[in-house]
Amino acid sequence: MFRETLRLTRQAFFGRVAALVGASELDERAWEDIEALLIQADVGVETALAVTDRLRTLIRRNGLTTRQQMMQVLKEVLLSRLPSPGPMNLDPDRLLNIVLIVGVNGSGKTTTIAKLASRLTGDGWKVLLAAADTFRAAAADQLEAWGERIGVPVIVGQAGGDPGAVVYDAIRAAHARRYNLLLIDTAGRLHTKFNLMEELKKLQRVAAKSVHEAPHEVWLVLDGTTGQNALAQARHFKEALNITGVIVTKLDSTARGGMIFAIGQELNLPVRYVGVGETLLDLVPFEPQTFVENLFAPA
User: Fold this and answer.
1) What distance in Å separates the CA atoms of residue 245 and residue 220, rounded to the nearest whole number?
2) Which single residue of 220, 224, 285, 296 could bond 255 by disulfide (Cβ 3.0 to 4.6 Å)?
3) 3-class DSSP state for residue 81?
C-alpha cells in the first residue's frame, strides 16, 4: 500500500537522493544536493543536516564504496529517526479506555476518528464516540453522520456548550452501556476569547477525574500535505499536552512524506497511523521499516 502512496515523493526526492548516494564520488557538491533534496521532501533543516552528517560519518568510517552498502546505511540512518510505535496503552480488559484526538481544523481529524472507530470496531473493541468539538457547528453533525454510517453511537452536546460536559456524559454513557473504548473528538480552533490548549487540558482533567489514568492515549492528527507547518503545530500541541502518538493524514495526495522523519527526530513522537486514501479502509497502522523501504522501491 505504501509503494503506490509514496510514488510521487519517491520519484521527486528520495529516488534522487538514492542516485546521489550511489554515485561513484560523493564530493561536497553531492552532499549539499542530498541535504537540499531532503529539505525539499519536508524532512526539515535540522533533520536533513543530522541525517546527512550521520550518513557521511558512517560511509567514511566504514570505508563503504558500493551503492548497495551506502543505500543500506542510508535506510538505517533514516529508520533510526523513527521511534518505534511500540504497544498502545489500550487494554481490552480495562473497564474503559479513553483516547483523546487533537489537531487543528482541516487536518482531517473528524474523518480520521470515524476511520479509527471503524478499524477498532473490526478489531473487537466496543467503541463509543464523543463529539466534544462544540465550537464548530458542523463537527458534531459530521461525526454523527459518520457514526450512523459505521454503526458506532455518538454522544453529542449542545452547540457552543461545554466540551467538558460532553466528555463527562460520554464517560457515563460508556460505563452504562459497557463500551470499553471512548474516542473523543476535540476542537481544533476556538473563538478568540478562548485558549485552545487550556480547553484541551481541561478535557484531560475531566477524563482523569472519571477514569483511572485517563486519557490512556492522546493522538495528534496532522495533515501530511502541510509539511513543516504540521511540524510547528506538533511542537505547539506537545508543549501543552501529553501527546503519545501522531496520525498523519492525506499521505496519498501531495504530501512529501519527509515530515514523518522530522516528527520522529525533533519531537520523538511515534506515528501510529497514516491516511492513504478516502475509504474507511485507508487508515493503516504505520510500519517504519515498510515506510523507509518503499521510499526507495524500484520504479
Assistant:
1) 6
2) 224
3) coil
Find the radius of gyration of the CA atoms of the chain.
21
Residues 6+ apart with CB under 8 A from 203: 100, 132, 163, 164, 167, 184, 186
Alpha carbons 299 and 297: distance in angstroms, whole number: 6
Chain Cα centroid distance, residue 220: 6
As a whole number of angstroms, the distance between CA 30 and CA 173 comes to: 60
- Find all residues with CB under 8 Å of 205, minimum gap 6, and list them: none
* Rounded distance between C-alpha atoms, residue 77 and residue 165, angstroms: 46
* CA-based nearest residue to 5, from 203, 224, 179, 199: 224
Could you tell me the three cell numbers for 219? 493522538
pTM: 0.93
Q: Find out whether 265 and 47 touch, Cβ atoms under 8 Å.
A: yes
Contact 82, 271 (CB under 8 A): yes
What ranges in 62-191 are assigned the alpha helix state H?
A: 67-79, 109-122, 137-150, 163-177
pLDDT in tens, 35-93: 999 999 889 899 999 999 999 999 999 998 888 898 999 999 999 999 988 899 999 99
Residue 266: other Cβ atoms inside 10 A: 17
- Span 228-271, pLDDT tens digits: 888 888 898 999 999 999 999 988 766 678 889 999 988 899 99
Q: How large is the greatest C-alpha to C-alpha distance in the chain, in angstroms?
A: 68
Measured N-to-C along each axis, helices 137-150 and 109-122 cross at an angle, to the nearest 10 degrees, of 20
For residue 165, report the phi and psi dihedrals to the nearest 5 degrees: -65, -35
End-to-end CA distance of the chain: 14
The rounded distance, in Å, linking the Cα atoms of 224 and 206 is 30
* Strand segments (E) across the chain: 97-102, 127-131, 154-156, 181-185, 217-223, 245-249, 271-275, 283-285
